[in-house]
């Protein structure tokens, strides 16, 4: 030890001005001293500082720390050898050699500094030991050892640089002066040094040595920062051991703000909240200063909104333990500033999540009632706020207060109260329980039900039986049947389930629960589900039986009605599974139970067996389904003739004296064909429920293989054939057996596969749709998509192949007929000079020719019949494609078959020219017809003409429905193929063929309409020639004009069948509108579509052909989709203008459509017969309300209404209203819209049905009248529009007309001044008379209107009276009618009751 002391003190005498002393570093950091040997290398021997400092006498302490301070620490700090090189503060030019020298110096300096800290730390640790007291003198403390002042001075110096080192460790890696490795090393060194300084200061603070409070600020700041950053429990325990240092700090100083923030940050850190050491530290913070409690509470309140359950419990525990430890002012602060504040917020907050979290926080305090002081504290804090909050007007406050009241029930004033005081207080609180049942708010009643059941469950044995029974009767007999809310009824069942946890309540509930049986048929699904949950809970209780509450028949009836609800059907199945599928039953008993079950309740049986696998072992279910199938196989073999079996049988009741059956013997139960099909359905449902288990779990593969031995190919095929052999094949049974087979793989049923493929190829129009769809989807599920698609495509292609083949054959036949005609001509010429006797041979030859012609005709008829069947088969194949694309799985399979899908697209593309040719033939026009050269020979022209006639005949044989369905299916295929891509590419080119066809279609339509117009003109001329007279009166002329229109309509509408061109046109326009809806095209393409649609509207304008009026809704849908696309940010804003222009063109077409005009006239005539109200029947050309709704959602409703009124309604007013009446004439006053155009009627009726639209109309009219300076025209137009809207809404209660009445009030108040001005002007005109110049008179006439303001004022008064008085009268009439109906209903009820009482009395007699 002397050697160590000597070497240590010698090293301390040396100065560390260069930052390097190897002997000091070896002694301190390595703890090795050097032994010098002559002629040999020096030996380094390891030692322990703890042993050294125990040995070192106290007189050397002062010398030791003086040397450390003056010779080691002071030079390092004064020469700034401990801080790294700073590029910003250094003015010298950075050199690499200077940086390297600085690196060596700083590393050696840090090693020396680490040695200093090692000595101090080891020295303080050696004396930091618990004082051992003798057992004889347990209360005698030993005096604390005095340490040198120099040590404290060193610690003060270190305390000042602790945070500086911590900041250097964080920032040194950001500066790129040193290499990455050295920066990382230095960062770790500085972090370790700051930690060692903190440890030295902690020992001094922990020992509470003299002036330890001077070491507290930086040390605690370092520990708070380190524990918050690391989250290590050891750092939190270090902080907790020196927490008494917090009492020495001054928190009112403004410089202490950063330190307070560090303390508050601990209440947010998860490690402080969750760990015991952290909780101790946080609880201690409540006892430092009362001012700090306020900031702590505000910090915790900010965390409660998003805190989870464990965090809430931790906060509540901290508050509770801090409350237990607090005294005096601290206790008052915690109670009234913290806890009562949380109670007030919990009662008055509107945020449901915050309210729930605060209730969870306070629930911790409510559960601490075993601690004596908790009850008085809760009553003291709740009493001024809780009880009065239960009766406030705001329902949310009452709800929150009720939750806290029930959770804290019962509240006691004091533990020293007498029994009488306790009883009076409890009676008050029980009264509050009952009063909350009658609260008008649904939420309060729900909380009251939930809380009451919780109180009864907790305190059943303490509450008097009379109180508990009265509460339960109120709940079960009254609130359970609350019609105003589903949640109230649902909460009853949830509460009963909670109360059943207390076994003492079972005897009371057993009597009351049967009163709830009818609620199993409640209209609310949630109520029924909660009732089912309660029954399942009761099923596990031995003291109550669930079928005593709800009979099984009710449950079965509910299973039928809730068949589609999987959750409910599963719960009902779980309830009755032991009744119909007992675990110990024999297999044939299970079969008989099944037959009896579906005979009584078929849908309930289907629901039961489809969910059976969820509650019965899979092996048992598999055995049962195999037994069922064996039963069907035996039944079909025993009853070979299906036609001899009855179709249906009623269930036969079993006799009581039945003999017991032997084991595994089948009971003789009558089974009909429908029962057979029902068993098949049950087998299919069970197999469908087993299929996911077989595919996911390998443990059931053996079960599946054993089932395949039962469900073999022969048996399934025989049942399929047996069902098909009926006089009327049992299609439903066949479909079910196909579904059963589809649950397994195709390899197991080769015979059935061939049979089904054969049936699939033989399907025709007589085949039921169910069998078609089942066959198709089953074959697809059996991994046969290629084969099935090939059959479908071949049948689609076949009629068009036959078309081209028949063309070639007929051309060949034509050539043969020409040759025969030439030969016959030659024979006739040669036989002219022969005798009459040879005429018989010629007659025989002619007869032979006639026989050949008859045979050819018969062959042609047979070909036509076969061709019709081929077309019919092709249309069925189109239906098959539609079914495949509607099903998700089959659609994906079709789209993934690249080869067949490409062949499908090409075949559809080849059909488009055929459709175009068919349109040309039906419309009797030609597209792109070129002029023929005059030099061509006549024979060639005749041959071409003949070929064209032949093509027409053959093409017209194809069914029109086939062409139409092929076009629609082709568009569907394109949409699905486009939708297969994740990212939709605009203008991808998928629809290029369709759009080219559309252009051709519009050309055909244009030529067809022109030709139709020419035919109409010819017809009119012929009519005029036949019925034309020179001397005809005007009335007769009018009658003739009407007759001409009737003849025109008869000529055009002579056929009720739609034209083929209109059907194709509708499909094409629907493709355009749907493509806009899916966002498949750009703005340029949309503009092109707009031009095409505008052209279509111009072409069909004024035509009344059947189908043309159906184009208007499709174009309107296109306009709506276009506007939706532009308003929702997916399109160009220019599309809004395009959409609006298209809408106005639609209105123009409506005015010229004869069919729509007729419908409007019929509607008006019907309305005139019904009290002249035009509101009963509305015109439904298209949904303009959807178009307006788009603008309303974007806040642009005023824009569209302004354009509609200015460009449509007011333009129509200018045509039908007289703006220059004579003085004797009265103003035209429009009470309804009959005199307006159809489009204007439609617009006004649509706008008048919406309150937002009427409000915007009011805003527009006020601005319009103001901008026009209240001239006569603006007021006149406004009054007419208001008149129409008011008359349309006289009987409606939902429409708000306040915006229009305000306009009328403004007119009534402002127009009298205009009336006086107008009268003065008229008087001046009379006085001046002829003195005025004629030019001045003409100028006045042109600038002034002849409408009088006085007449406008009278119109305003009349409309205001109509709007106010008539609507009130109509409402009074409705009220009186309602009262009359109610009185009649009461009288009927009285009569029914009297009749019942009379019948009871008669039965008693």
Describe this structure in words.
There is one protein chain. It is extended, with a radius of gyration of 50 Å. A two-stranded antiparallel ribbon has the order 1-2. The protein has 58 helices and two strands. Strand 1 (32-35) and strand 2 (43-46) form a beta hairpin. 29% of the residues are buried. Mean pLDDT is 77; it is low at 130-140, 651-668, 929-950, 1029-1056, 1167-1179, 1322-1332, 1336-1344 and 1377-1382. The protein has 1405 residues and is mainly alpha-helical.
Residue share in helices?
A: over 70%
Beta strand count:
2
Helical/strand content category: mainly alpha
| Major sheet description | 2 strands, antiparallel
Assembly status:
single chain
Shape: extended
| Major sheet: arrangement of strands | 1-2
Q: In angstroms, what separates the terminal alpha carbons?
A: 125 Å
In round numbers, the mean pLDDT is 77
Strand content: under 5%
Low-confidence stretches: 130-140, 651-668, 929-950, 1029-1056, 1167-1179, 1322-1332, 1336-1344, 1377-1382
Q: Count of DSSP helices?
A: 58
Over the alpha carbons, how many angstroms does the gyration radius reach? 50 Å
Give me the secondary-structure topology.
Blueprint: H1 2-13, H2 22-28, E1 32-35, E2 43-46, H3 49-55, H4 61-78, H5 96-127, H6 149-171, H7 180-206, H8 216-230, H9 233-241, H10 257-265, H11 270-274, H12 276-285, H13 290-304, H14 309-325, H15 329-348, H16 352-366, H17 374-382, H18 386-389, H19 395-407, H20 419-437, H21 442-459, H22 465-477, H23 486-499, H24 506-512, H25 525-539, H26 546-549, H27 552-561, H28 566-580, H29 587-600, H30 602-610, H31 618-638, H32 673-696, H33 701-710, H34 713-724, H35 731-742, H36 750-761, H37 769-781, H38 785-830, H39 839-886, H40 888-896, H41 898-923, H42 938-956, H43 960-979, H44 992-1027, H45 1034-1052, H46 1060-1077, H47 1083-1100, H48 1111-1127, H49 1134-1152, H50 1154-1169, H51 1184-1193, H52 1197-1216, H53 1238-1247, H54 1251-1267, H55 1272-1288, H56 1298-1328, H57 1334-1343, H58 1349-1404
Antiparallel strand pairs: 1-2
Helix pairs in contact: 2-5, 3-5, 4-5, 4-6, 5-7, 6-7, 6-8, 7-8, 8-9, 8-10, 9-12, 12-14, 13-15, 14-15, 14-16, 15-16, 16-19, 19-21, 21-23, 23-25, 25-28, 27-28, 27-30, 29-30, 29-31, 30-32, 31-32, 31-33, 32-35, 34-35, 34-36, 35-37, 36-37, 38-39, 38-41, 38-42, 39-43, 41-43, 41-44, 43-46, ...
